[in-house]
């Protein structure tokens, strides 16, 4: 099957929903986790009854083919993290519907599995109805039901798995268990047209560089500790950035603001080409990366910024009070001007705060600068002209921290991706996953690919972040290969590696 450009979804394709109440989340804790309680059974049974109302029996796979003139149509359910989505695709590669809902939490907080599962339970019926209506498809026309079997958070995964199993049993359809990671890869190949790319998969729970070999997607390199999305989210929580639409998006916007303001202030002839960077940590080990070091340095910078802001406010208040006391406490006939008071109160450079020495290591690899601040040379795949900065050069602000964090993290990713491309002799690089829709990361990958004479495939938030269409599409590929499971034996797993799945639909490439 030759993938075609997908039909853009309706405006309902991206939805942001308010979080459920704490009471609702707590009430559904057991149901979301085990999927065995009466409450869960009642909720899932309601899914099938509500959606199938007025449709009659859904019919068999043969009846589905007859109803659609032989066209294969698949409904997919995604629920591995804080997004729940339902997608419908057909065997022409067209995306017929792709609505989703996102669980949003207050700034400075993350999302707990039980509360996320409660949100998904409250939205999934509505999303199934919406997808069927938008695609103008009835249950009779569906060939199979696909769902995310992992990896992901257990309770949210259970919601999608139970919903898919229920629909398959009620409607008499085949069931397909889809690996979430492969869903991202195949959606990227479909949308961008990259046939055999080196894949950079970056999301809240995954950081992998992937290539296709011997019938499976092979992990060539990955994070040794923290996933990149988790790293970015943790810094965003410390900065108390909004989670709407996503903390990573807020970090991207602050970083962009810092760069734009820097360029506005430095337009003269001898101005540096690029903004300075905080001295963070740069850890690349072959084709693997380690983000815990840069995360620790970034967290230290946030704490230091908060400390400096607090001390500055306290010092300003103290100076004002002391100045007022001095004015009223002078002997009769003695006068002192405010300027003299300020001069006497003046402290050493830095406002009396001792110079920080915890971040005095050499600049990260790829960002080495001369003592006079001139730009140095970048490492492989990273942007040219990085300038490291001591903490006194630029005031610590959320924008400065976010900009530096992105530059370090993305430079590391570009380096290992370029090494993987050289190993695989790839002519294309494809970036997928939630972090993959970051425009700065796409720009850096595009520059690296251009230097190698290669192409770069990237997507926007409709298809890069978690969505039901990617699960439906892989479900379609697996269904055509006969990779279905009995609903009574359906499963979900929190750990489900990309390289555990036989990619049988690419068998023609293996024969070449």
UniProtKB/TrEMBL annotation:
Residues 1-32, 344-391 are annotated as: Disordered. Residues 376-390 have a biased composition (Basic and acidic residues). It catalyses: L-threonylcarbamoyladenylate + adenosine(37) in tRNA = N(6)-L-threonylcarbamoyladenosine(37) in tRNA + AMP + H(+). Pfam families: TsaD. Binds 1 divalent metal cation per subunit. Keywords: Acyltransferase, Cytoplasm, Hydrolase, Iron, Metal-binding, Nucleus, Protease, Transferase, tRNA processing. InterPro entries: ATPase_NBD, Gcp-like_dom, KAE1/TsaD, Kae1_archaea_euk. One of its GO terms (molecular function) is tRNA N(6)-L-threonylcarbamoyladenine synthase activity. A divalent metal cation binds at residues 180, 184, 201, 466. It is found in: Cytoplasm; Nucleus. Residues 21-32 have a biased composition (Low complexity). Substrate binds at residues 201-205, 233, 248, 252, 438. Residues 99-473 form the Gcp-like domain. Residues 1-11 have a biased composition (Pro residues). This is N(6)-L-threonylcarbamoyladenine synthase. It comes from Eimeria maxima. The lineage of its organism: Eukaryota, Sar, Alveolata, Apicomplexa, Conoidasida.
């Amino acid at each position: 099957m030759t993938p075609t450009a997908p039909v853009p979804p309706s405006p309902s394709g991206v939805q942001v929903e308010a979080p459920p109440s704490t009471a609702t989340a707590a009430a559904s804790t057991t149901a979301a986790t085990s999927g065995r309680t009466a409450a869960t059974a009642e909720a899932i049974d309601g899914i099938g009854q509500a959606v199938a109302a007025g449709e009659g029996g859904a019919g068999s796979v043969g009846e589905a083919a007859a109803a659609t003139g032989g066209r294969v149509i698949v409904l997919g359910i995604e629920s591995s993290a804080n997004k729940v989505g339902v997608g419908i695709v057909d065997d022409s590669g067209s995306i017929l519907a792709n609505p989703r809902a996102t669980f949003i939490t207050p700034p400075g907080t993350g999302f707990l599995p039980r509360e996320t599962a409660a949100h998904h339970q409250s939205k999934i019926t509505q999303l199934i109805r919406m997808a069927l209506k938008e695609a103008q498809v009835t249950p009779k026309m569906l060939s199979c039901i696909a769902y995310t079997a992992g990896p992901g958070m257990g309770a949210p995964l259970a919601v999608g798995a139970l919903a898919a199993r229920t629909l398959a049993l009620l409607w008499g359809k085949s069931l397909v268990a889809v690996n979430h990671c492969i869903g991202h890869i195949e959606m990227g190949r479909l949308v961008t047209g990259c046939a055999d790319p080196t894949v950079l998969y970056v999301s809240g729970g995954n950081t992998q560089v992937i290539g296709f070999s011997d019938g499976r997607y092979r992990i060539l390199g990955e994070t040794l500790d923290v996933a990149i999305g988790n790293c970015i989210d943790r810094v965003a929580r410390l900065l108390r950035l909004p989670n709407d639409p996503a903390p990573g998006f807020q970090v991207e916007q602050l970083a962009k603001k810092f760069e734009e303001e820097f360029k506005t202030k430095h337009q003269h002839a001898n101005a540096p080409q690029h903004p300075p960077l905080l001295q963070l940590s740069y850890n690349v080990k072959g084709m693997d990366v380690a983000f815990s070091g840069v995360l620790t340095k970034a967290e230290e910078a946030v704490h230091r910024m908060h400390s400096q802001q607090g001390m500055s406010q306290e010092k300003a208040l103290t100076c004002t009070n002391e100045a007022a006391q001095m004015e009223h406490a002078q002997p009769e006939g003695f006068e002192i001007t405010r300027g003299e008071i300020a001069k006497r109160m003046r402290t050493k450079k830095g406002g009396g705060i001792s110079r920080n020495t915890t971040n005095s290591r050499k600049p990260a690899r790829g960002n080495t600068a001369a003592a006079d601040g001139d730009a140095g040379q970048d490492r492989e795949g990273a942007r040219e002209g990085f300038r490291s900065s001591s903490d006194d050069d630029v005031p610590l602000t959320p924008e400065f921290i976010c900009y530096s964090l992105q530059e370090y993290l993305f430079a590391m990713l570009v380096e290992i991706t370029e090494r993987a491309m050289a190993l695989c002799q790839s002519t294309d690089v494809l970036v997928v996953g939630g972090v993959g829709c970051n425009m700065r990361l796409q720009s850096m990958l595009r520059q690296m690919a251009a230097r190698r004479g290669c192409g770069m495939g990237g997507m926007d938030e409709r298809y890069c972040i978690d969505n039901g269409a990617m699960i439906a599409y892989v479900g379609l590929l697996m269904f055509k290969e006969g990779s279905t499971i009995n609903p009574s034996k359906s499963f979900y797993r929190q750990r489900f590696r990309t390289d555990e799945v036989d990619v049988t639909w690419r068998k023609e490439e293996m024969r070449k």
